[in-house]
Amino acid sequence: MQVIIALDIGDKRVGVAYSDPFGSYAVPSETYFRTGDARADAAALASLAEERGASVIVCGLPLNEDGTESVQTQKTRRFAAMIAACTALPVCFEDERCTTRAAREDLGIMGISAKRDKKKKAVDSLAAAYILESYLAKRRLDMKEETNAYTDEDSIVELVDDEGNTYRYEHLLTFSFKDEWYVALAQEGQGDDMPEEEVAIFRLVGDEDNEQLETIEDETLLSAVFAEFCAQYEEDEDDEETEDGEDGE
User: Which residue segments constitute the domains of the chain, with CATH numbers given?
Assistant: First the structure.
């Protein structure tokens, strides 16, 4: 399980977002205000990534609409190189065209005034989340296409009970339900035809840097969450079949 951090790098502020440990979704986090000392800022952001247990740092790359590079692109590359010099973590880029615009539009829909400092901070972190979502989507596609580089172990989670027994589960889906996040697991080796009783669903709790799996004691809630899992899991399966059909045409 690996956390990925994304940065929306600006001249005055840097938006920050993190992934969940399974790399399924992105969460807007904070906004870092630059001090004017680029090297100190780079070191601070590198330390932030390491403190959160990140495995990769993804930097948004501002390109022109036609994909060519600009002065801002080169400034971002230089700053990213400074970050890379401060950490052993890999640093990569993700096209950030339209992310800031989309973030402003979404915040406008949410009713946050453009004149408030609150929106400026929110735009930066939300834009970083969009950058990370784009990176995660491409990574999932690459993992699917590059089958030679992918093994079943990448989706295996080991859980330890109170008596110290270790059980291996396959990660099926991380999904949201009524403003909370849940993780669905199946005993290793069950495959696509696993019986319902073999699906284990946990609530994802804790901060971005200390997320944990929590059992659901409320049977009514568990039933509702399981129904939501079934609906989203089937939808994902249908989407994959559609994509496979289009690829074969």
Answer: 3-145 (3.30.420.140), 154-247 (no CATH)
